[in-house]
Amino acid sequence: MQAMFAAVSSRLTSVLMVLLACVTLALSGCKETASTAAVAPKAGASGGPKVVATTGMIADVARTIGAGRAQVTALMGEGVDPHLYKASPGDVRLLTDADIILYNGLHLEGRMADVITKMASDTTVVRVTESMDESQLRSPPEFEGHYDPHVWFDVSLWSKAAERTRDALIAKDAAGRDMYARNATAYLEKLAALHEYAKTTIATIPEGSRVMVTAHDAFGYFGRAYGIEVLAIQGISTDSEASLQDINGLVDTLVSRKVPAVFIESSVPRKTVDALVEGCAARGHQVKVGGELFSDAMGPAGTPEGTYIGMVVHNVDTVTAALGGSVPAEKPGLLLSGMVPPPAGKR
């Protein structure tokens, strides 16, 4: 009996610590959004685990592998910038009630890292990037010794996150082992097809035009994996402002290399990209906005771009078309099946 009271006391202490951390964040300007205000779902007839994922990309992997059993909620929905996201009281309720918390790590969820860390003493907390070979992670000098967290843009690397998610679900819910294993095998096959699609499609862009200019440096893994040079106005995190010198330097590059298009991002304000367009026009070089890319968040729920596979296909097709490549009129069947939006529910 004494041991039971001690365990309950430890649990209450942990929750109070997390709530205190969240209140501190709230006082600094956090506003609870519609995506985090709802309470976590109650256990269903399937008996599967309740999973809370920080980003939409992670949630989509968990929903796909856990289909038919796991109940998955995403904290961050369409257009949300994870670099700047702050945990709300609604987030804490979801996290406290979860069986598994899945997060990216590598400093992506910088402003809510303390909350996630505090939850680890009483809840299964899994960093989906932890099984990735560190030699495959980018370490840009401007990120001060840290790894680039945008690993989902190398599909072959993101497959490791899918495997880690599968293993986490099996470890928590052994009764669903066979289902999780089957779902993961099918999903990994689709990711392999997506990786090949990205490589072959980007390769149709004329070699001299393979320059991709974006608002912030989220596409380094994409450029490395698929053979396209990536230039960005801001660094890896959007938690810093681009300087006039940064913009002018990039204008010089766009003009001298006659780059035809630049790209905006769904989760980053477009003002700096517009400044590039205006700067080039003043120098006599017309550069267009080639389209909107999904970088740190997926597209709207219920659309193909609201899935990880659909998001990557959209980005590949948008970049290819804007830079003079050839976009396939028909997609492989495996990709089309992977772009089916998940069932209606929490994002």
Explain how this protein is built.
It is built from 12 helices and 8 strands. The chain has helices at 2-27, 34-37, 56-65, 89-97, 113-119, 155-172, 177-202, 220-226, 244-257, 271-282, 308-322, 333-338, and strands spanning 50-53, 71-74, 100-103, 124-127, 211-216, 229-234, 261-265, 288-293. Strand 3 (100-103), helix 5 (113-119) and strand 4 (124-127) form a beta-alpha-beta unit. Helix 1 (2-27) runs antiparallel to helix 5, helix 6 runs antiparallel to helix 7 (177-202) and helix 7 (177-202) packs parallel to helix 11. It is globular, with a radius of gyration of 21 Å. The model is unreliable at 1-45 (pLDDT under 50).
Short description:
The chain is built from twelve helices and eight strands.
Please specify the SSE layout and strand pairing:
Elements: H1 2-27, H2 34-37, E1 50-53, H3 56-65, E2 71-74, H4 89-97, E3 100-103, H5 113-119, E4 124-127, H6 155-172, H7 177-202, E5 211-216, H8 220-226, E6 229-234, H9 244-257, E7 261-265, H10 271-282, E8 288-293, H11 308-322, H12 333-338
Parallel strand pairs: 1-2, 1-3, 3-4, 5-6, 7-8
Helix pairs in contact: 1-5, 3-6, 6-7, 7-11, 9-10
Q: Write the H/E string, N to C.
A: HHEHEHEHEHHEHEHEHEHH
Summed up, the domain count is 2
Q: Provide mean pLDDT, rounded.
A: 84
Which fold name is given in CATH as the topology of the largest domain?
Rossmann fold
Q: Spans of 5+ residues with little confidence (pLDDT < 50)?
A: 1-45
Strand order of the largest sheet: 2-1-3-4
